[in-house]
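User: Just a sanity check before I run the rest of the batch. Below are the structure tokens for the first item. I only need the designed sequence back.
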């Protein structure tokens, strides 16, 4: 089955905080206190680039920080 041009040219979209919060509310997902605090501190740090923020979130949720502490 051939792909349509629309499917092959599709680019990934990055959700903003409001969109993520809205989707999470509909799905019944809630952030814990530690996660809210972590995300708030990342948003308030002007020295971090968007890539660095994403890396910090990934590190927190994939367990990389726990693996490196050993």
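Assistant: Here's the designed sequence for the first item:
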């Amino acid at each position: 089955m051939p792909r349509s041009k629309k499917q092959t040219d599709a680019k990934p979209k990055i959700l903003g905080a409001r969109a993520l919060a809205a989707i999470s509310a509909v799905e019944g997902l809630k952030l814990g206190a530690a996660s809210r605090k972590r995300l708030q501190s990342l948003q308030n740090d002007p020295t971090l680039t968007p890539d660095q923020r994403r890396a910090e979130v990934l590190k927190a949720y994939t367990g990389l920080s726990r693996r490196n502490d050993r």
